[in-house]
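Narrative progress, year one. The postdoctoral researcher (J.K.) led the effort to move from monomer predictions toward full complexes, under supervision of the PI. The following entry was the first complex the group processed end to end, covering 1026 residues in total.
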Amino acid sequence: MPLDLLNHAADGAADARDDATSLLVTLSVAGQRCGIPVLAVRDVLGEQVITRIPLAPPEVAGSLNLRGRIVTAIDLRRRLHLPPAPPGTPRMSVVTEQGGELYALLVDEVAEVMNLTADTFEPTPPTLPAEWAAHSAGVYRLPAGLVVVLDVARLLAIGAER
Amino acid sequence: MDDLLADFLTETTESLAELDLALVRLERAPDDAATLGLIFRHVHTIKGTCGFLGLPRLERVAHAGENVLARLRDGTLVATADVVSSVLTAADRIKEIVAGLSASGAEPQGDDAPLIAALAAIAEGGAAVPAAVPAETATIEPVAAEPIPAEPARTESPAAEPHGGPQTIRVAVEVLDDLMTLASELVLTRNQLLQLARRQEDDALAVPLQRLSQITSDLQEGVMKTRMQPIGGAWNKLPRLVRDLARDLDKKIELVMVGAETELDRQVLELIKDPLTHMVRNAADHALESPTERRARGKPETGRIALSAYHVGGHVIIEVADDGAGLPVEKIRAKALARGLATEAELAAMNDAQILRFVFRPGFSTAAAITAVSGRGVGLDVVKTNVERIGGSIDLASTAGRGTTFTIKIPLTLAIAAALIVQAGGERFAIPQLAVVELVRASTSTSTSTSTSAGPEGSEARIERIDATPVLRLRERLLPLASLRRLLQLGDAADDAAPQTVVIVQVGAATLGIIVDAVFDTEEIVVKPVAPILRHVTMFSGNTILGDGSVIMILDPNGIARATGLGGGEQRASGVAAAAAPAVSSAERTTLLLFRAGGPEPKAAPLGLVARIEHIARERIELSSGAPVTQYRGRLMPLVPMAGAIDPARESHPVLVFSDIDAALGRDRCMGLVVDEIVDVAEETLRVELGGGRPGVLGTAIVAGRATDVIDTAYWLQIAYGDWFRSAAGRRAGAARRPSVLMVEDSDFFRQLLVPALAAAGYDVTAAAGAEPALRLRDEGAMFDAIVSDIEMPDMDGLAFVRRVRAEGAWARLPVIALSGRTHPDDIAAGRDAGFTDYVEKFHRDALLASLRQCLGQDVAAAA
């Protein structure tokens, strides 16, 4: 279902940008609504079998097999220093590509694709906790709540900041 | 960049590579019309296309080159080395411009006027040139006058062209990689289908499924084949390289290439290219002698470098051989010693092949001196590292005066490899089959009292522990062990006492056992690189997807060896006799065995003095005249409990065994120091604060950040055998004189340690607490057979001391052995310059004894 939405939304991506709007795949992690630009998203997956990787950075949940390609799974909760998900909760992943490698961001839930206009966009509030501020590209004010735009490149720069 | 330009660039790059080869070939056979025709066509094509694409700079250079080539083709100019050089220069310029083009999409700026003028001069100077330029190398026949066959090369039909292979099409590498991925995915899907079908027992499905299975395998194999390339691709730059080197170095070199059609995976090819180039350059630069030297040695003037490649099993063997001077074994030996890579005693025990392998050590890579003198050795460690990185190995053979052959063995492909699937801590991992030597089921030896009894136990493998560190006793060898669970931090093994499965892997020259929980199967795996954020985990070389669709990590035996401290590049030649001696390489540091006895505070003893560590079961401790003993290796060994008494409640006691075995002297005994617990082995710069006056303790030192008592081994040995040190003297009282040694050492600690050790070995030892007191002894007329001196001493150091000794007096010709914690090559060189006969690392008792024996020119036993 989310895939259909994606395909549909991607068709409209080009003209949407002209109107100073952006298409975001929205998702939630530990109750916070976030968004990832739709063009950065390759796939949305349901619960997957993930192989643990010993000695990997704590944010790396493991790796999974996506149609013959190996995808490194990043636990977004751990990446953002949020409490771990209750055991047994199914998690979804948003697959993105960086430098020819695929990464799956493990999130609690993937919601709809939203078309957001520039007039509701705000830069990241400076008071956000460091781990949020470091990975946020800005915030959309929506009547239903705030959507934090995640900076995928910086989310994946694990190890670079240490 | 438009498609047209992109196509042009790919095509030009390839024809330039061919051009290089053809030009070098032309130089050797200047009247080879076919080669000349080929060269002309390449340049002509480049020129023509440039005009079409609007690349004026490129066109002008190509045009100037073509003019020269046209004269050659017409037979009015002969391809001398100079002419070929100028055309090569033009080709190089074209390469530069093409490189600029592909980087920026436009021709780079630059002035080609001088080059074009030079080419024009040659083209116009025409007939005069051949007469004026003498033949540069022997391979060029001085056939200036011989006319080229009248038939112009242009008219030769393409069919006559010798390089026309089977039809090919150009495919982007990414497309092949994608195909490979898809084929792998198909294999996985097929496997799942097969599993499903097995449960269904539906005959209608079986036949088409069988067919699908077969086709899938064929497809995978076919896709794999598309990635294979002839190794010649990695060689095609070499003729040009060798030619240029020969010209620069005034040498005559013939490059022979055999087996250029041998195929291997594109990826391997890329990785092997640089190491090969390096080795050929080395051979041309350093190994081959100048023509004069060669003539003097009765060899043909033209040196020969032979490259050959062939398949053996799943490997490609590449040999780089030269008929040069060969590697100077003696110089390498000296260099190894000077660099502190081995002691003289160790070197003495090595054969030439083992010594030659020192050239692969990092210490030799920057050794400008040795290359200047005669040998090669620039960056061979890098070559070795690169070869090993792709799962290959490298070895060399050299005969003085006859040349050197390097042999590289590399896997055919990195894409598919056989791997052993193992389990540890609930996770599965793949170990490359290439590295696996054998699988061993090993029992642990902790509490079973019979297993530690004396005498061989047959071929059963056994795990023993030096406290927490397990080692494997396998067929009279001791192998370091690493627990995969611990290495990967997957928790400790649940049941240490149960028999364990050990995978023995070979890493370079070292062998290592990896303890795993379970071993499954061997599987052909498709190796994929790990994500960049995991690259720092050196324990893994890649990851893969198994037949059941799950992702697993591939273990890197090199990384594991490094993590366990074995050191990936470290050579541990199995044939070295002195293998039991502690490592020498670490300057200024002493390896200490840390243990606890009679208290919580750690104690330490130099590991070099401890012969073995045993766990002795309670039942095996007996009493003899009230003193505890145990039967050890067929005789009684006195046990000295360091804590004062042996705790009867404990089932087994760790025991440090000190032994003094010298068949020649008839000495053969052991003493066991019973301790509470073995803690660790630490490497420390030992600075002992003396004092306390406690019996059995030399003093206190900081080890691993904690104050640690360093035990006085001599004290404990004497408790076991009151006459441990005296007996040798007593027994030999009436015999020949014992060799006398003067020990100059300012540190009480070392004096206390070494004097008994030397005395036990049959020397009469006199100790002096410094250089001044020692010199006073000389002036008083004392005489010794040898002197052992520390280097770092207050007032007058060892170097000054030995200079004084050499300068005058009765000791001037005595052997003087330096004893120092500093084994940096510079230190050793300084020591030798000052006049020391030999240089031995402190605490290396065996090395000191060996050196003394050598210096005294006799076996001490002979005196007994």
